[in-house]
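Complex record, two chains
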Amino acid sequence: MKKHFAALSVVFFLSVVSLPASPAQAQCQLGVPAIKVGVQGAASGPHSDYGRQIEMGATMAIEEINAAGGIAGCKLEIKFMDDENKAATGVKNARYLVTDWGAHFMVGTDSSGVAMALGPVLAELKRIHFFTHAATHRLTEDLVAGKGIKEIVRVSVPVYQDAIIAALIFKDRMDIKRWANIGADYEYGYTSWNLFKETLKKYRPDVEFVASAWAPFLTLDFSPHISAVMAQKPDAIFATPWAGEAVMLLRQALIQGVFNDTKAWWQAMGGSVDVLEGISAEVQKDRFKGNLWATARYIHNWPDTPENKAFNERFKKRWVRLPNYSAETTYSAFFIMKAAVEKARSLETAKVIDAMKGMQIRNPGGVRTFRAEDQQFIYNVPAGRPVIDAKYPIPILGDLKVFAAKDYYRHPPFTPVAVTK
Amino acid sequence: MDNFAFQGLIGLSMAMYLWLISAGLTIIFGVLRIVNFAHGSLFMVGAYLAYAFYGQMGLPFWLAIILSLLGTGLLGLVMERVFLRRIYGIDEAYQLLLTFGFILILDDAVKIIWGGVFKIPPIPAFLDGSWPVFGRSFPIYNAFVIAVGLAVAVGLWALFEKTWWGRTVRATASDREMANAIGINVPWVFSGVFAFGAMLAALGGAIGIPVRVVAPGIGAAMIIQAFIITVIGGLGNLKGAFVSSLIVGVLSAYGTLFFPVFELFFIFVIMAVVLLIRPQGLFAR
């Protein structure tokens, strides 16, 4: 009996001591065991590092948010899934994440095609998706401002960055009159080129658009595209293939002498760290002759703020790499989610969206301001030329041209832009 | 006119890449009667190995190519002797399952070893730059690819027509049982042919690495085109593969120049026309 009593008292003691064993759950003010966030990106195939960057940004964000007590006292949990850059897979994943796994929010998505397929499904699943890379303007212009799908929130700047900034930079280059395009043969490439032409033509009715060549996804040999547009003797090239394709395109253009025969080359997402690393040797030898221009949806060396520097330091410490844009936009999406949910005191879509109205938030990439009409978080990213800087192991964008976001974002009501070649 | 000729030369260099990869596919099909969907993955492995030897270890470019061929050939040998051998006698659907399985395994394997970020080593100095051709700048690199492709074409012709091994392989391709009966070691011919085809795929991958990135999944970019070429040329016919590589490479380069909006399905139009007129392929007997 004595023995039993001792055992019972130990059990009793332990149960008393362990009562407040899960403070996070006890303190979560939203009535859920954890806030679950489904994260998606392209994690296989040649663009798989973009999905990896999304995953790294998301992981770092929840580690920091959880260490500081979570969102309204609730811990965050993520599940990352590979959408293979395919619309069907992205939609299937989203359905699984919401209905089976129980996601409260979703974040990520690299491809415009995947994003456009996800949009209508989100309305049906009644979950907000924070888009952190997919660039087609139609996601917010058509699906949010046009069709009123409130579940779409965009944190990364769309093709305005790829196309309109280019037009603003080159409108003053009176020596450039003939533009040619080497475009990604899908929606992103079409809308970028059409927006560029439309914007530049407003300022410069004298410019001509002399040639276009379109390279499908997974092109390894751009030499026929380069030689086809060079046959028209353009002054400058507008190019939208991205990631490894951008590096191949630039190298194949160099050995075809394009940088001897043209005055400028715009490589839209050439400010991506993987591209800058890929063209490192050429930048070092100044083989682009200062004629290569590029931008990105965030560049790690801008803005020069304590927040951005600290983010870079933490990122490098955590992953031993520089943050690419999809890492920053994804990371920031979680802090936007945190601010909105804490203000709304709810996980309901309507209340969370309401809480975003008028929101201004300081992220590593700068201050983002919510625009209610198309549910974009607006911020600006400069464009520049790849340069060597002793402080960094790979080239960075330098000679930066900074434009205010309001000067290059399109504004509602939106006029349609052609989505065709 | 100069632009037309120049685009043709660029198309010729594209054709030679296509020829290298479709040659291996054709030889393997011709002898083993296996449709090797993993051929594009062998192309990718060849590219990664060449990158490892040249870009990471700093060996001379030509040596890296040779080592990459040997490495990929060895991989091909293992694939044939350990796996493919078991499915020769059974339903053809298993070929698809097994070789498709290899695509997935090899794609993930290179990602585990080399990571998801694409790789691109520097251009060897002797291949950097361009020559003036038709008033334009023709890359020395593309000329090099044309030279390698033509050399392989001549080499393969000599190998199959003039050597004992080539005659053995041709005998095995036309009648396995008779070849066996007259004392040819057919299983080893199969292994040798598969390894040789793998080496040709690797050559296609390896020679491109300084101008084409090495990344997981690049095999998928090549395999569709290679299949189209073997279908146009006639399955298992080497001369057909060479001619149809030329047709597809040169015509799609002209497609980019003259019909940029339709470039994507130009190659499929060519295939459709050939299949309508000669369903067995241009050169099939």
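Note: The interface with chain B takes residues 43-46, 48-49, 51-52, 185, 211-214, 216, 218-221, 223-225, 227-228, 230-231, 243-245, 247-248, 251-252, 255-257, 260-261, 274, 277-278, 281, 421 of chain A (CB under 8 Å).
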